Amino acid sequence: TDSIFTFMHVPEAILADAKSYMKIVGGFIFLQGIISAFSAIFRSNKMMKETMLISIAVNLINVLGNALLINGIGPFPVMGVAGAAWATNLSRLGGVILYIIFFLKKFETKISVRSLKPFPKLELKKLLGIGLPSGGENLCYSMAMTVILKIINTFGTFVINTKVYASTFAWFSFLYSSAVGQASQVIIGNYMGAGEVDLVDKRVKKTWRNALLIAIAMAVTMFLFSDFLFGIFTDDPRVLELGKKVMFIDIFLEMGKSTNITLVRSLQAAGDIKFPTVIGMISMWTIAVGCGYILGYVLNLGLVGIWIAMALDEDIRAIVFLIRWKKGKWRNIRLADD
Fold first, then answer.
1. What pLDDT, in 10s, does the model give residues 285-313?
2. How many CA atoms lie within 13 A of 309 on its CB side?
C-alpha cells in the first residue's frame, strides 16, 4: 500500500489513516464481488425491488456502523477511520447474507459447487466474452481516475476537499441516469432476444432524453445552490469559490455522462460490447488524463482544468456513442449466436 499512496501523492497528514482503511477494506473486498454478482443476477431477472431493498439495508448498516465505531457510542470504542472501514465490511457482509436469503427464496434452488459438474465451459466462455470488455472499461476508468486523483493531490488540501465535496454533489446529478440505465439494459436485452429491434430504438431514445433532461436540471440546481451546499461542510472561502466554478463546469460534464451511461449500457445490452470499451479507454487516457494534466498541472488551472478535461472526455464520448447508435450496427448483433 505504501507504493500506491506514494504514487498518488497522498498527503502525509492522512497517510496512516489511508493505509489503515485500505488494509481493512481491501482484505474483505471479495464481499463486494459477491454482491455485484448477485445484483447482476437479480437485475437480469427483473428483481429490481429486491435489489433496492438490499441496497437500502446495506447503507443503513453502514451508517449505523459509522455512528457506533467512528466516534464510539456506548460500549463501542473510538476507532476513527478504522471504524469506518469495519462498518463498510459489516454492511457488505450483511448485503451478502441478504442476497443469499433472497436468492434461495426466490429462485428455489441451492448454492452448491456441485452445480459446476460438469464444468460449464461454453457458458463461461460466453460470459467472459461479454463481461471482460465491460469489466475492462470499468477497470480503465478506475485507473484513469486514480491518476487524476494523483494530480489533484498535488494541488493542496483545500483543493482535495473541494474535489470530494464536488464529487458527492455531482453524484446526485447522474443518479437517475444510472438507475434508468440499469433498468433499460434489462428491458433492451429482452427486446433484442425477442427480435423487437424497433422497440429497442424507441426505448433507448426515450430513456436518453429523460436522463439528459434530469441530469441537466440536477446539475444546474447544484450549481445555483453550490454556496449553500459547500457551506454545509466548510466555511473556507477558497473552497466555496472553487466549488462554484467546478459545479458550473459539471453541468456540461453531466450532459455527457448521462448520455454515456444510457447509450453504453444500451449498446452492451444489444451486443455491441467492444466498441464502447475501446472508445472509453482511448478517450479516458488521452482526454481526461492527458488534457487534465496539461490544463490542471502544466497550465496551472488546478481543479478547474481537471474538471474541464473530464467534461471534454464525457462529451466527446457522448457524441461518438450517439453516432454509433444512430448508425444502427447493433441491430444485426445476436449475442445468443456468438
1. 999 999 999 999 999 999 999 999 999 99
2. 28
